[in-house]
Write a structure and sequence with these properties.
- The protein is an alpha/beta fold.
- It has a domain at about 1-180 and about 215-240: NAD(P)-binding Rossmann-like Domain (Rossmann fold, 3-Layer(aba) Sandwich), CATH 3.40.50.720.
- The protein is about 40% helix and about 15% strand.
- It is built from twelve helices and 13 strands.
- The protein has a seven-stranded parallel sheet, sandwiched between helices. It has a three-stranded mixed sheet with strand order 7-9-11.
- Strand 1, helix 1 (about 10-25) and strand 2 form a beta-alpha-beta unit.
- The longest helix has 21 residues, at about 95-115.
- The chain binds nicotinamide-adenine-dinucleotide (NAD) and thymidine-5'-diphosphate.
Length: about 350
């Protein structure tokens, strides 16, 4: 089997490629990745010499290069995206080009290539902010609130249209917040851990009471490999893990493991339109037979250990001019405290 993976130099895509090459001996992987600021060949350095793996540097919104890369592939697993909410608020343009146009280009190419499966990797953020005790099911409506979430919701609709109109065998997955090795240090958890390792404060948005479901990236990679085999075309599957934590609670757990004082958390002004709560019901995936493997506490501790051990991976990323410029813009004058977190 030959699969085209898009966005394989990113956080989840690289964890998926590593997993699938390990789990399936008779697989070949073409990784189509533009290597944006979030794409890093270092993420797959350990498998770069594997003859079953090949990286094509191209933009998913380029129909010619996409068709070439997809030639002879049996399946597509589509991770490539602009993925950071805060960047989408600063500048939504790249999110529309990659997440919306790029997805349509891939769907068209997959139809021409007559692939047997197309896994469209999406997010719980398309459901919007979830009130009360409800957990989003796949039947719930789409109420995206950030430009990122809106672009992903649009891509979900395009994936659905390709199935209904053209019978392209698309499966859409909607995962909750991932954490684990190789996550670019702009997202909450790697930012928190690496700032603490650098002796810098972590900027907590607003009152810190926003709730996220946390999913270990290795469980996510395994769930996608499972759905590639067992999922039904035209269906949507939530992938959650069901570990819900307030942001304040997450920081407290990380501080406890790393032995960091509360004074190292600074409150900064809230993210505009900050969704209060995401929560997924993933019983549809569990009913199909998927079992989450990694207990949250162990996975969190291992993740912290990984960032401690891999300063060689994250320090160069934080030292680039692009990272510094983004950090300055996002957090204004660095991490000037707005008020101390209680
Ligand atoms: P990431 O930002 O770490 O990686 C994105 C990858 O896509 C990078 O390697 C980048 O180079 C590549 N890319 C970006 N634009 C491209 C383009 N135009 N053409 C080709 N390649 C391009 O993202 P991630 O966190 O690994 O997320 C992967 C997917 O999972 C995304 O679709 C995202 O929406 C979804 N998702 C992420 C999370 C999460 O917590 N990170 C949760 C749910 C769903
Ligand atoms: P993030 O990792 O950006 O994921 P998402 O917004 O897609 O859920 O953020 C996770 C949570 O952490 C979210 O509620 C926003 C919050 N957050 C902070 O409090 N401070 C930060 O510097 C960042 C990046 C996020």
């Amino acid at each position: 089997m030959k699969i085209l993976v898009t966005g394989g130099l990113g956080f989840i895509g690289s964890n998926f490629i590593r997993h699938i090459l390990f789990a399936e001996k008779n697989i070949r992987v073409v990784n189509l990745d533009l290597q944006t600021y979030a794409g890093n060949p270092e993420n797959l350095k350990d498998i770069a010499g594997d003859e079953r793996y090949f990286w094509v540097r191209a933009d998913i919104s380029d129909p010619v290069l996409v068709a070439q890369a997809m030639a002879g592939c049996d399946a597509v697993v589509h991770f490539a995206a602009e993925s950071h909410v805060d960047r989408s608020i600063l500048d939504p343009g790249p999110f529309l080009k990659t997440n919306v146009i790029g997805t349509q280009v891939l769907l068209d190419a997959a139809r021409a290539e007559k692939v047997a499966r197309f896994i469209h990797v999406s997010t719980d953020e398309v459901y919007g902010s979830i009130p009360g005790k409800h957990r989003s099911t796949e039947k719930d409506g789409l109420f995206p609130n950030s430009p990122y979430a809106a672009s992903k919701a649009a891509s979900d609709c395009l994936a659905r249209a390709a199935f209904v109109t053209h019978q392209l065998p698309v499966i859409t997955t909607r995962a909750s917040n991932n954490f684990g090795p190789y996550q670019y240090p702009e997202k909450a958890l790697p930012l928190m851990i690496t700032n603490f390792l650098e002796g810098k404060p972590y900027p907590l948005y607003g009152d810190g009471l926003n709730i996220r479901d946390w999913l270990y990236v290795k469980d996510h990679a395994e769930a996608i490999a499972f759905l590639l085999q067992k999922g039904t075309p035209g269906e949507i599957y939530n992938i959650g893990g069901e570990t819900s934590l307030k942001n304040k609670e997450m920081v407290a757990r990380v501080r406890e493991i790393m032995k960091i004082p509360a004074s190292m958390v600074t409150r900064v002004p809230d993210r505009p339109g900050h969704d209060r709560r995401y929560a997924l019901n993933d019983s549809k995936l569990r009913r199909l037979g998927f079992k989450f493997k990694y207990p949250f506490e162990e996975a969190l501790a291992q993740t912290i250990e990984w960032y401690k051990a891999r300063e060689d991976w994250w320090r160069p990323l934080k030292q680039t001019g692009g990272y510094a410029a983004y950090y300055q813009k996002q957090y204004k004058k660095g991490t000037v405290p707005f008020s101390r977190a209680s």
